[in-house]
Design goal:
This protein is an alpha/beta fold. It contains 6 helices and 8 strands; from the N terminus they run βββαβααβαββαβα. It has a single domain (about 5-245), classed as Alpha/Beta hydrolase fold, catalytic domain (Rossmann fold), CATH 3.40.50.1820. A hairpin with a 2-residue loop joins strand 1 and strand 2.
Length: about 250
C-alpha cells in the first residue's frame, strides 16, 4: 500500500505525518489513527498499511509536532522493559503538555485535513487509537459526533478519571459505534462499569472487552508487551466495526 508523507496545517503550526491508502486510485473511507505514547515509527506504518489493504485511507499524525518531527526521541528497534523508564522520562513532559485544549484544536485540524483529501470519500470517518491515542480518539469522536461514525481504542490510557475533563464525561455526546479493547489491568472493574454507563447513556452500539492474558501495549510488535493473539483479536474487532460504520452507512 502506498505511503505519503504529509504536513498537516494546524492552529499551532504544521504537524508532520503520513497517510496509507489502497493502490489503484479511487476514493476510500477515512480513518484517523492516533499512535501510542511512543509516537510515529515503523510499526505504525505497518498497521496503517494493513488497514489500507482493507480499503481505508489512514491518516497518522505526529502527536508531538510542536516539539519537532517524528521521532521526537530516539527509539530503539525493540522497546524492552529496560528501556521504558528512560523513554518515558523524555516523553512524559510532552504528554503532559498535550492538554485537552490542544487535543481538540489538533483534532479539528486533522479531521479537516483528512476529509479534504481527494482520495477520501465524502461521509463519516473513524477515529482509532492506542494507549494515549485511544484517549485522543475518544475525545475526537465526542467533539465531532456528526462526523465520527466509529471509534476504537486499544490498551487505552485513562478513560475514567476524577478530572473535570475526564474523557468519560463527554461520552454521552457520542453517536459513533465503539469498541474498547483492554489489557488486563488497564481499567478497574469499577471504571469499566462507569465507562459502560456513559456509553449506555449515549445509546450507541458498543463493546468493551478485556483481552485475556494481554498486557498494556499488546498490539505493538516492537515492544515487550506484544501479544500476537491479542493483536489478531484487535483486527477481528476493528475491521467489522469499520465495515459496519463506514462502508454500510
Amino acid at each position: 500500500m502506498p505511503i505519503k508523507s504529509l504536513q498537516i496545517p494546524t492552529p499551532d503550526g504544521r504537524a508532520d505525518g503520513f497517510a496509507a491508502f489502497p493502490d489503484g486510485g479511487g476514493r476510500h473511507p477515512g480513518v484517523l489513527l492516533y499512535p501510542d505514547a511512543f509516537g510515529v515509527r515503523p510499526v505504525l506504518r505497518e498497521m496503517a498499511q494493513e488497514l489500507a489493504g482493507h480499503g481505508y485511507y489512514v491518516l497518522v499524525p505526529n502527536l508531538y509536532y510542536r516539539t519537532g518531527p517524528a521521532p521526537v526521541v530516539d527509539l530503539p528497534e525493540h522497546i524492552g522493559e529496560e528501556s521504558r523508564p528512560a523513554l518515558f522520562g523524555q516523553l512524559m513532559p510532552l504528554i503532559e503538555e498535550h492538554t485537552t485544549d490542544r487535543v481538540l484544536r489538533d483534532a479539528d485540524a486533522y479531521l479537516r485535513f483528512l476529509t479534504a483529501q481527494p482520495e477520501v470519500t465524502a461521509g463519516p470517518v473513524a477515529t482509532i487509537g492506542y494507549c494515549l491515542g485511544a484517549v485522543l480518539a475518544m475525545r475526537t469522536a465526542t467533539a465531532h459526533p456528526g462526523q465520527v461514525a466509529a471509534v476504537a481504542g486499544f490498551h487505552p490510557a485513562a478513560l475514567v478519571t476524577d478530572a473535570p475533563d475526564s474523557p468519560h464525561r463527554l461520552v454521552p455526546e457520542l453517536t459513533a459505534q465503539v469498541h474498547i479493547g483492554l489489557a488486563e489491568g488497564d481499567m478497574t472493574p469499577e471504571a469499566i462499569d462507569e465507562f459502560n454507563r456513559a456509553l449506555d447513556t449515549a445509546g450507541v452500539a458498543y463493546t468493551t472487552e478485556v483481552y485475556p492474558g494481554a498486557i498494556h501495549g499488546f498490539t505493538m510488535s516492537d515492544t515487550a508487551a506484544f501479544d500476537p493473539s491479542a493483536l489478531q483479536r484487535h483486527w477481528d474487532r476493528l475491521l467489522p466495526l469499520l465495515d459496519r460504520a463506514l462502508t454500510k452507512s
